[in-house]
Amino acid sequence: MTAYITSIGKFLPGEPVPSERIEEYIGAVGGGSSELRDLVVKNSGIRQRHYAIDQSQRTVYSNTELCRRAIEDAVGRRGIAVDDVGLLVASTSAPDLMGPAHATMLHGELWSTPAETLSVSGLCCSGMGAMKAAYSQVENGDHPNALVSTSELVSRLFKSSQYEENGLAEDGSLDFDVAFLRYMLSDAAAATIVENRPAPEGLSLRIEWVSLTSYAHVTKPCMYVGSRDQTLERTWQDYPTFGEAASDGAMALRQDMRLLPRLVKTGAEEYQRLAGLGMIDADEIDHVAVHYSSETLRPFAQREFARRGLDIREERWFSNLPTVGNVGCAAIYLILEEMLASGRIEEGQKVLCFIPESGRFTISFMLLTAVGPGADGDGSTAR
Q1: Could you count the other beta carbons within 10 Å of the beta carbon of residue 258?
Q2: Which of 266, 287, 274, 271 is nearest to 348 (CA)?
Q3: Of 22, 104, 195, 301, which sits with the fewest C-beta atoms within 10 Å of its C-beta?
Q4: Dihedrals φ, ψ of 38, to 5°?
Q5: How far apart are CA 286 and CA 339, in angstroms?
Q6: What digits encode the pLDDT tens for the residues 219-241?
Q7: Which three-class secondary structure state does DSSP give residue 350?
Q8: 309-317 long-range contacts, Cβ below 8 Å, gap at least 24?
Q9: How confident is the model over 201-220, as a mean pLDDT?
């Protein structure tokens, strides 16, 4: 038995926010705020993004509501109801609650029947972890279908009010390791339906395999929240009060920019390892769908992959980072949705998905094949 992506729903909250208007939503922090914003935006290549907060920094959509909208879009496109889905796997880096688990909250809000649920925590690759869990159960015959919910709502962490008493801009400017992510990340949700047969209409994406590999043993944390520094000797739960943790900057999301070039190289090395195992044939890849944080990394990534036998020419490479923004674990599914909706993917073509997560260096790949309604488990047409 195999598994197919049969529908992808999405929800991008609010109107697109041009990069020059970011601070109308999250506010300015420190005297050099605008200069930092312009530097990050220029290097990222992001032209617009979406926020789930308004210009008064009030939350308009909760994380649960973002997921609801995306799930309703996915099941609506597929022509089924949420109660027809027996497995829900949800991933996010910023749930509304510390507990109960995010998937449990979604099930309680949207379903009216029992279902199996699983929550996957983490950063960008957690969405692929959720997909692997759903794909595995469908492929094994545990469930005929599953729904993978991926969402990010980070704007609540970036509001200027969050920085007023944390000492991060005492000298009049925000540390770049904090400013980078503040001007990089934004909000969105995607919901993906996985089934044991192709959709009755249109293209489906047969999942050939999903790979997640941690390289945490070779690096210290690169993207992290909950501690003032990478030693992690004192986390936010170790302070006498939550207020003291916030005041010391432990709740600020940080990125060690010095490690990012090494992340791209690690991703290319992981590709080489998988190719050596016979999992990837570069000559068969028609599209490479990539989630990355900055357009400045693109030529470096292309060179590193070319050195290892995969020539990612411009017509093969696809990312919607400039128009959607960096939306973490939801990004790869919004990329696939756009590729399908635009007709970029044709029947029989293979799509290699690539996510290098900077958290503590996790690399994820997924290989997909586009098939029509009559395809069987081997990709041939049933007659």
Answers
A1: 9
A2: 287
A3: 104
A4: -65, -35
A5: 12
A6: 999 999 999 999 999 999 999 99
A7: strand
A8: 309/272, 309/275, 309/282, 310/271, 310/275, 310/280, 310/282, 310/285, 311/282, 312/288, 316/285, 316/286, 316/287, 316/288, 317/287, 317/288, 317/290
A9: 97
